[in-house]
Amino acid sequence: MLENSKWIGTSKDYGTVCPVFCRDFNTVKPIEEAVLLITTVGCYEAYINDNRIGNFVLAPGWTSYESRHQVQEYNVTDMITENNKLRIYVGDGWQLGGMSYYRRSVYSAKQPMLIMELRITYRDGSVDFIVSDEMFRSARTGILMSNIYDGVIYDARIEDYDYEQVKIIDYPKTMLIPQEGEEIHEIERIKPVRCIKSKTNYDILDFGQELTGYVEFECSAPSGSVVELVHGEILDRNEDVYTENLRSAKQRIVYISDGKKRVYKPQFTFMGFRYVRVQNWNGSVCPDDFTAIVIHSDMRRTGTFECGNDKVNKLYENIVWGQRGNYVDVPTDCPQRDERLGWTGDAQVFAASAAYNYDVNKFFKKWLRDLFAEQFEDGGIAAVVPNVLYDEGKSSAAWGDAAVICPWTMYRFYNDKELLAECYDGMCRWIEHIRAQGDNEYLWNTGFHFGDWLAMDNGQGERFGATGTDYIATAYYAYSTSLLINTGRVLGKDTAVYETLYKNIVKAFKEEYIKDGEPVYKTQTAYALAIMFELADDINLLGDRLDDLVYENGTKLNTGFVGTPLLLRALTKTGHTQTAYSLLLQEDFPSWLYSVNMGATTIWEHWDGINEKGETWDAEMNSFNHYAYGAVCQWLFETVAGICIDDTAPGFENVILSPKPDKRLLRAQAEFETAYGTIISKWEYTDKGLEYDFVVPNRARLILSGEEKELVKGAYHFVYPY
Ligand code: BGC
User: Fold this and answer.
1) Is 160 exposed, middle or buried (0-12, 13-18, 19+ CB in 10 A)?
2) Domains (ranges, CATH) in the chain?
C-alpha cells in the first residue's frame, strides 16, 4: 500500500509538542472524485480547508503496529475547492505515548510520522496524486503535550505556526493494511447533572455517569490564564475528585487561554470519569459551559434487556456502559488508570455478553488478528494484546485461552467460519503450547497464572483466589481443547489427535482434581468450572454441592474473574436457577446489586471497590469501570430471557428459546437483532398466569416447562398457570 508515498516526520525534535503537517495544493479542473489514503505513527486528525476529514477519533486505532498498521480511506470529493490546504495534526497516541504501567514505548517508531496519498480524478479522466513527500511542511502546534493517559496541555495563544521542512523517514510500509476495525467515534454528548463545591473548595462537575471520553468546554479567560480539568471516577471524603486509583495516569486537561472566547475540545486522549474538578476558571463555573463527549468503537447495538426489578435494570445499564467505556478499539480492562490494555482474560470472559449487547464481530476480528500476529514462537499468548508488556505474565490460563474462546464465540454468534478458519492454526498452536508445559502433557500445573483473579474466597484484600491455579489451568486446557475440536469439525479438519488429547486431559483432570466425585478445591469457582466444562462424572451432584456452598456462604458469591462468569450458568445448568436468581438479587456485599446500591454507574473491578464503611480498596488497583463481572449479562439473556444459541445452527439461524422465569423479577424482556431479524422474548406474571410472548425471525426451538416445540417465523403468545 501507498507505494509512491513516503513516510515523513519533522526535521527537528518537537519533544512532546504535537506537529502539524501541511501541504497546499490547487485544482484547476472539475473533479470527479478525490480519495485520501492516510495513516500516521501516533494518532491523527486531518483537515482540508479547516474541515475535519472523517470522524474517526484516535485514528488509526491501536493494532500490533509492527506487523499490522491500519490505513484509513476517506472520500473527500466534496471537501476540495480550487485552493486547498491539507493539514494533519499528530499526537502521541498509543504508539508513541508509552503504554502500560511501565510507561515505555515498545514500538520501533520513535517520532510522529505521516504517510498518505490523495488521488484526485478529474472529470476529463486525468488523475493527480498528492503524496506525502518533501513538499510537505511541518510546524509545532499549540498542543504542547498529548498523551492517552495524561491528557493534553493546550496553549490557545499559539495560532500562527512556523512551518519548516519535513524529513523523509526510512520506515517500513510492509505492515500497512486497510482499516479493519470499527472506527472510534464520538457517540453521545452528556451535560453535567450538577456542580458542587468540594470541602477543599473546588468546583466539581458531576456528569451522573461514568464514561469514557473527554469534556468540551466554552471558555473565556484573560490571555495566559491556565484552566485545569482533572477527571476521576468517584468523589473522595472531601467530595473532591478521587485520583489515587489512576496511578501514574494524570487524566488532566490544561488549557491556556488566549483571551478569546473559545469552545475547546481535547484531542488524542481519553479519560475514564464521572467527575471533573475545574480549577482556575474565570468567574463562577456554569455547568452549561461543559459537555462530556462519550467515545467508543462505533458498534451497532443489537440487544436490550429489561425486567421488573429496577436494580437489575440498573445493573444491566451499568454493564452496557462498562462495555461502551472499554471497547475503545481494543477490548480493554479499564479506561482510567495507566493500563487501558487489551487484557485477554477480561476480553474472553465478557465476549459473549458483549455480543448480546452489540455487534462485535468486526471489533473482535481485528483484535484477534493482532492476538495471533503477536502469538509467541512457542504458541503462547500474551496477557495483553496488543502486547506492550512483552513476556511478563505470558500465557496465563484463562487469559491466553482467549485465543480459542473468542473466535469460537464469534462463530456461535455470527456464524463467522472465515474467522475460525483464519484462527485455526493459532488455536492449535495455543493448545500445543499448553501441552508442552511441564512433565505431564495432560495437566497444566506449571508456570504463572492469574487464577481466579480477585476472588473473595481467599480473604479480603487478596488478589489470587483460593482455587488452585493448576486446577483452573487444566480445566481451561480441557475446555479450549474441546472448542478446538468443535472448530476443527466445523472446518472439516481431522480432529482425531485432539479428541484423544481431550479424553486424556479430562481423565488426568479427574484423577488429579476430583476426589470422591467432587473437586478437591471446595470453592464456588472450582465447582462452577467442573460443571460448565463437564469435568466430573456427576455434574448434578456438583450442582447440588455448589448450591450448598452458596447457601453456606449466606447466599452470596465469593468468586473472581474466572468463577463469576460461570457461576449462575453452572447453577442453572444443574437445575438451581432459583439460587442463581437469589445471587442476582442479593444486595448485601459482595454482590452485583451491592455496587448498584452504592451508586455505581459501571461495573467495578472489585466486589469491595468501596466497602460498607465507604472506604476504597487499595488505590493501586481499584477501577470502577472493569467489565469482567458484567459477564453475568450472558446469563440474563440466556436464562432470564432464554435467548440461546443453537450450536448446530449458529448465528441464530435457529434460536433456542428457553426462558426460566422467577416471580421475584415479575417480568423480563429481551430483544436481540440477528442476521435473520429481531428475536423478542418476553414473560410476565399477570392475573391470567405466566404469560410469554415471542417473536421468531427465522426458526426456534421453544423449551418451556420441560416441553419442546419447533417454531417457525412468527409471533407467539402462551399462558401457563403458576
Ligand atoms: C487488569 C486486569 C487483568 C489483570 C491480570 C489487572 O491489572 O486490570 O483486568 O486481567 O491485571 O490479572
Assistant:
1) exposed
2) 8-181 (2.60.120.260), 186-297 (2.60.120.260), 303-640 (1.50.10.10), 655-720 (2.60.420.10)
